Amino acid sequence: MENVPSPSEGVAEPVITPHADEVIASLLEYRAAEQAMSVRTRDALHMGTRDLQALRFLIKAESEQRIVSGRVLADHLGMTSASVTALLDRLTKSGHVQRTPHPTNRRSNMVTATVGSEDEVRQTLGGMHARMIDAVKALGPEDAALVREFLESMTAAVDSVDVVNAT
Prior knowledge:
By secondary structure, the chain is mainly alpha-helical. The protein folds into 2 domains: 1-45, no CATH class; 46-157, Arc Repressor Mutant, subunit A, CATH 1.10.10. It is 63% helix and 10% strand. The chain has helices spanning 18-45, 49-63, 70-77, 81-93, 115-137, 141-159, and strands at residues 3-5, 12-14, 97-101, 109-113. The strands form 2 sheets. A two-stranded antiparallel ribbon has the order 1-2. Strands 3-4 form a two-stranded antiparallel sheet. Strand 3 (97-101) and strand 4 form a beta hairpin. Helix 3 crosses helix 4 (81-93). The longest helix has 28 residues, at 18-45. It is globular. It starts with a strand and ends in an 8-residue tail after the last helix.
């Protein structure tokens, strides 16, 4: 039986079967590749992690015709109002977002990504997204369902970690 390094501690932990080791190893390789891509993307766009997360959230929200206020963005990013205000000031100054009066709440602003920033993100990430879609298209419906269920299970496993009691 092989051992797979724990990503958080670098400690080898036995996995029940060799094929499970291979799957976990592949998942860890994917995570490492995704993290490296994220660094390259942030570098190409000259922004930090939270800035890019905010921008991607705003672009997605706009495509879904959802209105985003500073409070909604702060909740999504798990940030305080003061921190998200500083983030929005920075992104507004760099020309990536704009604030306009909220259509239904006079005490709030609506935050949107600028057209230029949407284009910049799409240009930077478009090729990667196309390759990911091609990889998914290569799966048959049954394989796609299996992969989706696996990823949902892995997401639930990661989301269920209790940081307070994890030692």
